[in-house]
Design a protein that fits this description.
Mean pLDDT: 94
EC number: 2.7.6.2
Number of strands: 13
Enzyme class: transferase
Number of helices: 5
Keywords: ATP-binding, Kinase, Nucleotide-binding, Transferase
Order of helices and strands: EHEHEHEHEHEEEEEEEE
Largest sheet: 9 strands, mixed
Organism: Paenibacillus anseongense
Strand order of the largest sheet: 4-3-2-1-5-6-7-13-9
Shape: elongated
Low-confidence stretches: none
Helix content: 10-25%
Radius of gyration: 18 Å
Strand content: 25-35%
GO molecular function: thiamine diphosphokinase activity
Structural class: alpha/beta
Length: about 210
């Protein structure tokens, strides 16, 4: 599936905003209740997978019959979250890009675990992101260009113990060869002055969160 985008829709907070992310040729993956969201909005998931403990028996029957492929697992004897199962499936397809929708929500533990999933894709050279109504999140381990788009703020947080050699171009608050360590808030709430900015780094994993109020 080189050149393809895979959209994983999972069971966190979803809304009409998510429909605007989906494009015609995207490969759609439904994770647990995210599969129901896709089907209720007229989409046929390429694959639906999970333990489906958040849907009714009637909804599960609809998901099974409305998906091209369907994988159900035992909720007690599985080691991975539904979202990680879907993410691992997507990684194995070697797409150009993976986007997670519904990966953030009221369960902070699940939200944080889903953010950590982005590291897997980054290390394999696959562009991965989490998008919700107000945020876009990526993990970077090399120099990366960032488009301002619809976001007013951009925050940088280390995902490894430290990130070194951070230099920013096109930002309101510049950094030059800076080091960020876990527990520091120096990288919070920067602003892109230009339509596009450049983030350079030397070592480490950097969490980049673009937000709008």
């Amino acid at each position: 599936m080189n050149g393809k985008r895979i959209i994983i829709v999972t069971g966190g907070t979803l809304g009409d905003w998510a429909l605007g992310v989906i494009q015609e040729n995207d490969v759609l993956v439904g994770s647990d209740r995210g599969a129901l969201y896709l089907i209720q909005h007229g989409y046929k998931p390429h694959i639906s997978l999970g333990d489906f403990d958040s849907v009714t028996a009637e909804e599960l029957s609809l998901i099974r019959s409305s998906s091209v492929s369907f994988i159900e697992c035992d909720p007690i004897h599985k080691d991975l979250t539904d979202t990680e199962m879907a993410f691992n499936w997507a990684l194995a397809e070697q797409p150009e890009q993976i986007i997670l929708l519904g990966a953030l929500g009221t369960r902070f533990d699940h939200s944080l675990a889903n953010v950590h999933l982005l590291r897997k894709g980054t290390e394999l050279g696959i562009a991965c992101s989490i998008i919700d109504a107000n945020n876009q999140i990526i993990v970077m381990n090399q120099t990366t260009r960032i488009e301002r788009g619809r976001y007013s703020h951009i925050s940088l947080l280390p995902l490894s113990l430290e990130v070194t050699g951070i230099t920013l171009h096109g930002f309101a608050y510049p950094l030059h060869q800076a080091t960020l360590q876990i527990g520091q808030s120096l990288g919070i709430s920067n602003i892109l002055n230009e339509p596009e900015g450049l983030i350079e780094l030397q070592t480490g994993l950097l969490l980049v969160i673009q937000s709008k109020d």
